[in-house]
Amino acid sequence: MSVQLARPESGAHTDGLLLGIDFGGTKMAVGVADRQGRILARERVPTYAERSAPQALQRALHLAARLVAEVGGPLLAAGVASPGVIRPDGIELAPNVPGWEGLRLADAVREALDVTEVAVDNDLNAAALAELRLGALRDADPGLVLGLGTGVAAAITVGGAVVSGHRGAAGEIGYAVSGGPWPGTMLELDFSGRALDGLAAELGLSGGAAALAGAAERPGPERQALTARLDELARHLVTSCLLLDPQRVVLVGGVAGSALIRELLVDRLTEVLPYRPEVVLSRFADDAALLGAVTLAREAVAVPG
Fold first, then answer.
1. CA–CA gap between residue 9 and residue 195 (Å, rounded)
2. C-alpha to C-alpha distance for 31 and 22, rounded to whole angstroms
3. Please, which of 34, 133, 200, 293 could form a disulfide with 205 given CB 3.0 to 4.6 Å?
4. What does each of the 305 residues of the chain score in pLDDT, given as a tens digit?
5. Is there a contact between 146 and 191 (Cβ–Cβ < 8 Å)?
6. What is the enclosing helix (H) or strand (E) of 238?
7. Which of 251, 210, 241 is nearest to 127 (CA)?
8. Residue 271 to residues 244, 266, 268, 274: CA-CA distances in angstroms?
9. Are the C-beta atoms of residues 19 and 286 closer than 8 Å to each other?
10. From CA 75, how far away is CA 34, in angstroms rounded?
11. In angstroms, how far is CA 76 from the centroid of its own chain?
12. CB-based contacts of 243: which residues, under 8 Å, 6+ apart?
């Protein structure tokens, strides 16, 4: 069932609209904004990843068409935030939704919504763009965005721009080597929303990662298990900080909402880093990638002001 987060303003916006779509492994968010990027209407719906990628894409496009029609006005551009490395003919490194790698997102949005300007980027890169333009990285350079959601990833900002890397895979720390013996496993299999959901189930907790974080507030096996997993994440975050020397680290995603997890991460950085960056929680909560998608659309067209 969809959740309405904001109602559109009355009256058609004849000067044009911008569309943002944020695809996630658990949830999808769609937002319609005016030419200046101010959100007029948005909704969030489940991804239902187990039901395949095409159904998720089609439901998001139908929702987008409805919201654009409700707000009223010509659609100028669309921005799309997606997991993985975006290619014109598909998507790489996006394992959380079966079949996602076969989608051509820009083409699908153009065809379904009759819009020419469509910009697609990795969801953490989109979140980092939102932080650069609207949030916690406006006055920080370099910056690091750490996404703790269904998966785990990072995004780098330098000189007011998001660094995508040679192949567009900068920040894909979910693939970092974790544990041993070599080559061990992937960090995302140790620490991510999905990994913590599994750990909670192993410990007999219902409610997934949130329940695990709540139980770990008290000493006991839940705290020990969570701390062991978090230590793996902290090691890779420490290395990222040593490599980049960021002024500020911004945490985004549902798992980052746990005060305990944030506290433990900061404690570990403070203990070992010679220069610890400021660590803050994004004020956009789960909307950073959606706002980034709208920003992608805004920057795809000439927008005054």
1. 40
2. 9
3. 200
4. 333 444 444 557 778 999 999 998 889 999 999 999 999 999 999 999 889 899 999 999 999 999 999 999 999 999 999 999 998 888 999 888 889 999 999 999 999 999 999 999 999 999 999 999 999 999 999 999 999 998 999 999 999 999 999 999 999 999 999 988 999 999 999 999 999 999 999 999 999 999 999 999 999 999 999 999 999 999 999 999 999 999 999 999 999 999 999 999 999 999 999 999 999 999 997 899 999 999 999 999 964 44
5. no
6. helix 221-244
7. 251
8. 18, 9, 5, 9
9. no
10. 10
11. 24
12. none
| Type and span of the H or E element at 193 | helix 193-202
Distance CA 305, CA 296 (A): 16
Assigned token pair, 290: 């959606």
Q: Are strands 75-82 and 17-23 parallel, antiparallel or unpaired?
A: parallel
Is 0.90 topped by the overall pTM? yes
Q: Which two tokens stand for residue 112?
A: 């379904």
